[in-house]
Amino acid sequence: MDQKRREFIKIGGLTTLAGFSGIGFAFSSCSKETVIDENNKLKITKVSIPSSMDVYAGGALVINGQGFENGDVLQLDLLTDASKKFSTSTVSVDAGSVTFSVPEELTTGTYQLTILRGEERLVLGSLLLNLVANLNIPDREGMTVKGVVYSDGVGIPGVVVSDGFEVTVTDGEGRYYLPSEKKTGFIFISLPGNYEVAAVGNAPQYFKRLSNNKDAVEQKDFSLIKTDNDDHVVISMADWHLANRNNDLDQFTNKVLPDVNTTIDKYIAEGKKTYVLTLGDMTWDLYWYSNNFGLNDYIPYMNQLNTQVFNLMGNHDNDPYKQGDWEAENAYRDVLGPTYYSFNLGQVHYVVLDDVEYLNSGGAEGTVGNRNYNERISNDQIEWLKKDLATVTDKSTPVVVAMHTPLYKNPTLDESGNQVDQLDLANGGTLVDCLKEFTNVHVLSGHTHINYTVEKEANIMEHNTAAICATWWWTGRNGYAGNHICKDGSPGGYGIWQIKGRDLQWHYKGIGYQDDYQFRTYDMNNVHITAAAFAPNASEEAMAAFSGRYSSQNANNEVLLNVWGYDPHWKIEVSENGNPLEVKRIRDKDPLHIISYEAFRLNAGANPTGAFITGETAHLFSVNAVAPDTTLSVKVTDRFGNVFTEEMARPKAFSLDMK
Predict the structure, then answer these.
(1) Fold of 228-510
(2) pLDDT tens-digit profile of 231-280?
(3) What is the pTM of this model?
(4) Is-contact 311 269, C-beta < 8 A?
(5) What is the distance of C-alpha 77 from the center of its chain?
(6) Handedness of CA 257, 258, 263, 265 (dihedral sign)
């Protein structure tokens, strides 16, 4: 089999080798001879099972092999649902194959094939049976792309189809026509709720590639798989920055991947459909060529996750040899698909946007440019977004907009401690206006490597999600701090969104920690950051430039709380000997990150990189106790009523491995 055509199809967590091409009763991908016990009593040999097969209900299912007999029964067991079993009898047998009829009740899915002959049975293997529709539809004048969206051979009406510019919906028989100029090179569907598509590796194939012939009429059909994802979970994973440096691949494989897969497996075991949504910067453009690690190299790591992955483009996922946004995006299109699209899971409408205009001044073949960019959504995307959202007629439908750079800036506080929010996206006001008719909008973003939330508009809440790579894999690098911490003190981690119907709940999970690890406490009497203690090879002056107020001894019995998932609907309570203490929200730097990154870089004789150093965050809280050695009761309640507590025994040590 041509290695360039090897594709992995994953449905319901089961992976098979496939390549969807061809229609009808013939094999739709290359076959592979199945190894069968030579001592099997049925004497069936030389069986060749394809990876996938397109079939019609009542049509023919042909299996190559020898030793089959008239009267053999083929049992089909759906691997994703043990209750679904079908059986069918032979239609004909010849020296090299057997033909069975396709059961009328068959549904699309991956089946185990078993031959029954009297009391004997023999498992042949498994394959994906794709029940196709009648795909012969006529041309229409002016329409350059046409097709059918179907499931189990029946067309699905009302499915949104787009080329990134034009938007239409399928008719009552699942057919669509589009007057496409084929500018993006894709036709894609907005996957309807309670359906899935087959995946290449873990990437769901909601799109088809188009030729660059504007005049040619092309037919692109979509086969969907019925599922129930009304109750589902989305894992949001921002800023992977895999680049084959800082032993990042080892950290990802041995720390991140087991943690995320444990989370995925937990929710799947609970019967919840679970998906991953990346939030951009899966790679790092600066190292595409120098480290030979680009988007193609990201794919094997993505495919190790135990579920389908919807991808999103970040500024670092552009080709640094290409100047200009469109040209720099071509590598992403070639490897991963459309740079913007929408889909539905259950009753929630998801929109993926590319809000980076990559300029890359000075970029040329063989030369990495400046990698500069603007944070804005292109006008073409805005116009497409308006059309896409217009198809969601019920404006109370929850809408999740995912993009890389944030809509709002990291919040500040006014003199009274109230949160102050400002737009960050250059045309953020335009995006807000596009969403104004919807009552329940959540924006998921990354880019900053910190956590924060903004609810400036009554109908929109932004969740800026900290990074999978934390501080670009530095603090977990061999010989460094041995922890995994972001610039705001959040543990490196990911968002978990639990959706049931139209009810959305979320929380942030730190990698290597339980779900209930939602804050960290500091006994500030013990937080004294000096070069002598944390960077003995550096000067005290150099260390103080980064440690700020923490360079002075604190003896005020202050306790600092870092609550990374905080929003104003959370409640922070601290008591000493049963007496409540005043809790004040402040904007400051997290001390653990300073000693985990800046101190190690200074100690190595290097200047800490500006983008990586500890930044101020507004999810810190200051409390002053009466005594220095009392145990404080800390109670944090999130907006959903979940309670997280700590009995904080003091003195509490300040160290790299503290929680």
Answers:
(1) Purple Acid Phosphatase; chain A, domain 2 (3.60.21)
(2) 999 999 999 999 999 999 999 999 999 999 999 999 999 999 999 999 99
(3) 0.88
(4) no
(5) 31
(6) positive
